[in-house]
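your task:
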Amino acid sequence: MAPHRRTALVLRAGAWALLGATAAAATSPYWPAAIGTAYTGAFLAWCGRRETALARRERVQAQRAELLARPAPCCLLWQMSDSGDHGADCHLGPELVTDIARGWAALDAACCLRAWETRGTAHDESTCARKERAA
């Protein structure tokens, strides 16, 4: 457990203990002490909240540092396989990703796969999902 999380846990436990002490002091003849224990408990709870925020900030900074340390994706295969099916000798750059994206956009703009493959010269009426774009 991280130091900030441990500190926050101890501070919150102390705040709960002082809350119990406040309840006990409020019902006793020493009721003015309840004011001090209530204030101290609230202060410990506030400190615990601050430590939790610091722990969260440390965790986020560690995640950001880990993401910055990762290599930049060099090809679509690297992106799609979460770097699992990727070779060290990959020479495919961001140009490939751009070309593939352009191809998918062209395929989406075509009325059917057959029309896209033949650049609009042939059309398959039976499988075309976009009848309104039929040539």
Summary: The chain has a mean pLDDT of 75. Residues 33-69 form the longest helix (37 residues).
